TrEMBL record, chain A:
Its main location: membrane. Pfam families: ASTER. The keyword Hydrolase does not apply. This is Protein Asterix. Belongs to the Asterix family. GO terms for molecular function: protein folding chaperone. GO terms for cellular component: endoplasmic reticulum membrane. It is found in: Membrane. GO terms for biological process: protein insertion into ER membrane.
UniProtKB/TrEMBL annotation, chain B:
It comes from Mesorhabditis spiculigera. This is PAT complex subunit CCDC47. The lineage of its organism: Eukaryota, Metazoa, Ecdysozoa, Nematoda, Chromadorea. Residues 1-19 form the signal peptide. The keyword Flavoprotein does not apply. Transmembrane segments: none annotated. InterPro entries: CCDC47. GO terms for cellular component: rough endoplasmic reticulum membrane.
């Protein structure tokens, strides 16, 4: 059945949707680079927390992992996010195993 | 009888001497015995607590001294004197050895000391709040997108034969929203006269990210929805136009390659009958006047704050390259109409307004398709495009020359390599002859040959 003359639809002219290739997502990355920045920052903080035994760095790494997770794209590799979380959690755990003392709060100086 | 009494007395005395102090009886065997066994006065109990040791060195020493005096007279008690000396020495050394010792602060166990972990508790509270906000914000964003789609799906299905294709199934599917991120959603429509495809992209505020929410308090953002129509090649005459809210359009003019290259005429909106807060960037006045008819102008004035920008172009290729970079080849261009509108959540009244805006968008697209430039205008735009192409060719001329030279050298090298690798001597000789002929020809001055017919 032919479509009515005023009907703009053309079923024979359909073009399929092409999903964004995850390997070629450079253009999107430049649009919003937040997840990549937070990933790198999280790794740096984790390394500092593990090697320099700075507890606050380990906690900051965990926060960066969470921010990266919240801003991640659907087609991004989930392995990267999971490994980022694992690294930051291990930094926190290792810092407290080596030295279970709490972080000295900045307001303690005023007490 | 007296002998018996004497024997008994001697025996009694002998037994008594056995039970006396061992030092006297064992003197003969002292050298064979260990020092520890011969001592009966109690040495300081090992290991003594170090604090007690500090207080205690003098009493044991004092105790030992009188005992020592008892045995001084006995010359054979070598072992005991030595032992006393050795016993005095540890006592004299012990206080000195204790001085460098420091007590380290052993922190109390976790469970007995929760109250001191204040910073940790604060960080954990922040993390929990962040994740709660993530779940809530994601839900709100998804709700916005899905509600808009369900409200306007019918209107889209009247215009396109496929609405909401996800590209995954063999046959085109309907009704799918592609979730790119937790704040960005897209709908693909296709199958319309004059339009290859429509991509509707909804970019909401990053409600799922607490950091962005806090930044949003300082620089508020709005949810927006972008309609990108890709038009058929032969549908559109060559011209470029951008009209919309002044700040947004000015930013687009700076960032987009086609607008910055072609749309050089800048006008305030009020000159064209548009709202005063709007601006126009156009390649041709004729195009701006032709598209913006009175009916459209009325609608644009009505929805002045809701419509962000309208961009129609036959040379759209995305963002401009950063300074210092040049294209190695001319970028691929597409014929597009991109309209950005504010996305809101609300009741029936808002949905009616959105329907009106959607109808206006389709009207603009059909107008752009049908609009034909005058002959002079068309010549002008074609000249602009040729000029851009020539400028590109000039800047890349040197690069192309170098590339051609590199290709020629590569071919020569391959030919020579083939000659060397050739095992058959006849073939090798033939190839060498051909190579020599080729070299002679290339060394000759290039002359144009005229063909006489």
């Amino acid at each position: 059945m032919q479509p009515a003359p005023t009907d703009p639809r053309r079923p024979n002219k359909v073009q399929r949707y092409k999903a964004i290739d995850p390997n070629n997502a450079v253009a999107l990355a430049s649009d919003d680079p937040m997840p990549e920045y937070m990933n790198v920052l999280g790794m740096i903080f984790s390394m500092l927390g593990l090697m320099m035994r700075m507890k606050w760095c380990a906690w900051a790494a965990l926060l960066c992992s969470c921010i990266s997770f919240a801003n991640t794209r659907s087609f991004d590799d989930t392995k990267q996010i999971v490994s980022s979380f694992m690294l930051s959690i291990s930094a926190v755990v290792m810092s407290y195993l080596q030295n279970p003392a709490p972080i000295v709060p900045p307001w303690a100086a005023f007490n | 009888m007296r002998a018996v009494h004497l024997i008994f007395l001697l025996a009694f005395l002998f037994a008594g001497s056995q039970s006396g102090p061992p030092g006297e009886d064992d003197n003969e065997f002292a050298e064979f015995e260990d020092a520890d066994e011969t001592i009966h006065y109690t040495p300081p109990s090992p290991p003594p607590p170090q604090q007690q040791n500090k207080a205690a060195p003098s009493p044991p020493a004092q105790e030992k001294k009188p005992l020592a005096n008892e045995f001084d007279n006995d010359e054979e008690d070598y072992g005991i004197n030595d032992e006393q000396e050795t016993f005095e020495e540890p006592d004299s050394i012990a206080p000195k050895a204790q001085e460098p010792l420091r007590f380290s602060d052993v922190p109390a166990h976790f469970r007995s000391n929760w109250a001191s972990y204040q910073v940790e508790a604060a960080v954990i509270v922040i993390l929990v709040l962040y994740m709660l906000n993530y779940v809530y914000g994601r839900g709100v964003n998804q709700g916005l997108a899905y509600t808009w789609f369900s409200a306007h799906r019918d209107a889209l299905e009247q215009q396109f034969s496929v609405v909401g294709d996800d590209g995954l199934t063999e046959e085109p599917s309907d009704g799918n929203i592609t979730k790119e991120t937790d704040y960005s959603f897209s709908i693909w429509c296709s199958g319309r006269v004059g339009v290859t495809s429509l991509q509707i992209q909804m970019r909401t505020v990053k409600r799922q990210d607490l950091v962005s929410r806090v930044m949003g308090i300082i620089t508020p953002q709005k949810d927006r929805i972008t309609f990108r129509f890709d038009l058929d090649a032969q549908e559109v005459d060559p011209w470029v136009l951008a009209v919309g809210q002044r700040k947004i359009v000015a930013k687009q003019h700076k960032e987009l390659a086609d607008l910055s290259t072609y749309a050089l005429e800048k006008k305030p909106g009020s000159m064209q009958g548009l709202p005063a807060s709007w601006g126009i960037f156009t390649e041709l006045n004729e195009a701006a006047m032709g598209i913006l008819d009175p009916g459209l102008l009325t609608l644009l004035r009505k929805y002045e704050s809701k419509i962000h920008s309208i961009h129609a172009s036959d040379q759209y290729c995305g963002a401009k390259l950063p300074d210092g970079e040049t294209y190695t080849r001319l970028p691929e261009v597409s014929r597009v109409v991109i309209i950005t509108v504010e996305l809101q959540d609300g009741g029936d009244e808002l949905r009616q307004e959105e329907t009106e805006i959607l109808n206006m968008i389709f009207y603009i697209v059909d107008k752009v398709r049908r609009f034909r430039l005058s002959r002079e205008a068309k010549l002008k735009t074609e000249k602009n495009r040729q000029a851009v192409e020539e400028a590109f060719m000039k800047t890349t001329h040197i690069q192309r020359q170098e590339a051609a030279q590199a290709r020629r050298e590569e071919r020569t090298r391959e030919r020579k390599q083939r000659i060397l690798e050739e095992e058959d001597p006849d073939k090798q000789r033939r190839l060498e002859k051909m190579e020599a002929k080729h070299d002679r020809k290339s060394k000759q001055p290039k002359m144009k040959q005229m063909k006489i017919r």
